[in-house]
Structure to design on (313 residues):
């Protein structure tokens, strides 16, 4: 079997901010460390029922985030009820547990409420109900992450460490798509794929010696075994691999599959994430050293990764 990456992961298992904490890196200036984004612009907001006033989504990936509801003066009898929602894609949002602000009335307006977002989604926003009368308020998201002249270097280290750990574990961490090539059909009723956890099989295609490609049917001929590690293409009951067909000589059979623990950093086991942080820190501290210190076979790192490792045969 040969493997070729088709689609790389869109995020990394650890963020730049997490790496900076691990490496104890700080820019040293407040202005570099903190930025503010308006979710709901300050001003007089008219009556809006059932959280129909929806703020702009803010990308907080890699940052610490503080959500600030800054109240001005409520109209007579007016109230403001706000809550935080989060999302993986800035499209589908759900309420975040712990994200409800205290109801703002005339008795407690002209004040600021703060809630630190500690969830794991990439985007957050605030939705608001305004009742009885117009009220003055705005919502800002304050993001904190140290900036450094070495941000690009650290970002490259994150990707390099993730690839090194994936190679060591023989499994993908964050969702990615791979091609798996085979020279012939197996003698058993399944084809074993690589890269750990299988999410879906996109296709299984074989090409004959004349160059004609045929796609197997996932409905009638095979199914995806997502429970086994690594995942498998398994023949359905009563089916056999195509026989009597002369296959082309180079990579005649190819399976395309989506693999990895999941699409978010939270889907990656914590022991693997911690191992990545330790490895990145070590690579950062010993840049340029020609030693074995960055090899994940050494004691503490091996112990963290061993439970997830798939041994090659």
């Amino acid at each position: 079997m040969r493997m070729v990456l088709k689609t790389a992961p869109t995020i990394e298992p650890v963020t730049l901010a997490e790496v900076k904490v691990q490496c104890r890196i700080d820019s040293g200036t407040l202005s570099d460390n903190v930025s503010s984004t308006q979710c709901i612009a300050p001003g007089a907001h008219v009556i809006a029922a059932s959280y129909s006033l929806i703020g702009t989504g803010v990308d907080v990936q890699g940052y610490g985030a503080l959500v600030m509801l800054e109240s001005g003066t409520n109209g007579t009898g007016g109230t403001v009820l706000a809550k935080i929602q989060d999302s993986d894609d800035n499209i589908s949002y759900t309420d975040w547990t712990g994200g409800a602000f205290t109801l703002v009335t005339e008795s407690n307006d002209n004040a600021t409420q703060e809630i630190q977002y500690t969830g794991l989604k990439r985007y957050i926003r605030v939705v608001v109900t305004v009742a009885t009368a117009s009220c003055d308020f705005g919502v800002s998201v304050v993001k904190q992450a140290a900036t450094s002249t070495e941000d690009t270097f650290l970002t490259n280290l994150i990707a390099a460490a993730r690839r090194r750990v994936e190679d060591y574990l023989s499994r993908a961490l964050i969702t990615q798509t791979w091609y798996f090539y085979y020279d012939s059909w197996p003698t058993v009723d399944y084809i074993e794929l690589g890269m750990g956890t299988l999410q879906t099989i996109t296709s299984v295609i074989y090409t004959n010696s004349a160059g004609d490609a045929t796609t197997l049917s996932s409905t009638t001929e095979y199914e995806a075994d997502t429970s086994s590690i690594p995942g498998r293409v398994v023949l359905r009951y009563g089916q056999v691999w195509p026989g009597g067909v002369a296959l082309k000589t180079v990579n005649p059979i190819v399976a395309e599959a989506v693999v990895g623990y999941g699409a978010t950093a939270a889907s990656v086991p914590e022991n693997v994430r911690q191992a990545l942080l330790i490895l990145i820190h070590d690579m950062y501290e010993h840049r340029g050293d020609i030693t074995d210190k960055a090899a994940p076979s050494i004691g503490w790192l091996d112990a963290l990764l061993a439970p997830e490792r798939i041994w090659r045969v």
Remarks:
- The helical segments are 16-23, 30-33, 151-169, 270-285, 299-305.
- Residues 197 and 260 are 5 Å apart (CA to CA).
- The chain has five helices and 17 strands.
- The chain has a mean pLDDT of 91.
